[in-house]
Design goal:
Elements (H helix, E strand, L loop, with lengths): L1 H62 L9 H26 L10 H8 L7 H50 L3 H23 L2 H14 L1
Helix pairs in contact: 1-2, 1-4, 2-4, 4-5
Keywords: Membrane, Transmembrane, Transmembrane helix
Length: 216
């Protein structure tokens, strides 16, 4: 009997030790989720400012009497691409912020179970550690989903900035068609390169490489 009590006590201590570690992991996850939401809010505000400036500038140009400013097909193409990219970025930022299905640990029903005697004190540590483990798995899925949305947010934000810069550059300088073709190709290559780098998470490989070098 004494051996059984010792075994149960050791098992309870193990579960409590796990629960403490899991609790710290949940706190780290919640901090990371807050950080993702903060970055998404910042991106959304920046997108709103950029769209406001763009639309104000275009309306002023359209209402002006100057005939020197002409919207060539290249200018229109890049400006439209910029608007679409910023709107997509705003959508992904909003979806990331609205995804709030996070877990915080055991529910209040566990307290009710202890009070009513449905849950024994010996089983309590195991139930807590199991619930925290499920919470960690749930939060990992939510964090991964939010990170994906944030990655698309910044991808389309950068694409929009590159497209706007190119379109406004064409609008201001009015280059010849050879320069337009050359700069357009460079801009497209830059945008494709940025999308490949961000969406395929090439930066993860760089971080892992730096970690390996530091561990040597």
């Amino acid at each position: 009997m004494a051996g059984d009590d010792t075994s149960v006590g050791d098992e309870g201590e193990s579960h409590l030790h796990l629960a403490e570690k899991y609790d710290r992991m949940v706190e780290s996850q919640l901090s990371a989720l807050t950080n993702v939401d903060t970055n998404a809010w910042r991106a959304a505000r920046l997108i709103g400012i950029l769209l406001g400036i763009l639309l104000t500038g275009l309306s002023l140009v359209a209402q002006g009497e100057s005939t020197a400013v002409t919207f060539s097909p290249a200018v229109l193409s890049f400006l439209i691409l910029g608007v679409i990219s910023l709107l997509l970025s705003l959508v992904f930022a909003a979806v990331s912020i609205l995804n709030v299905r996070v877990g915080y640990g055991p529910g209040t029903d566990l307290t009710d179970g202890l009070t009513d005697g449905d849950v024994s004190p010996e089983a309590y540590p195991g139930i807590v550690s199991k619930n925290l483990a499920k919470t960690i798995e749930k939060n990992n899925r939510v964090l991964s989903s939010k990170a994906d949305k944030l990655r698309y947010t910044y991808n389309f934000l950068i694409i929009g900035l590159v497209a706007f810069s190119t379109g406004i550059g064409f609008l201001i300088t009015a280059p010849d068609w050879r320069s337009v073709v050359g700069v357009s190709l460079v801009s497209v290559v830059v945008m494709v390169g940025i999308s490949t780098y961000i969406l395929r998470k090439k930066y993860d490989g760089e971080v892992e490489g730096n970690d390996d070098e530091m561990s040597k």
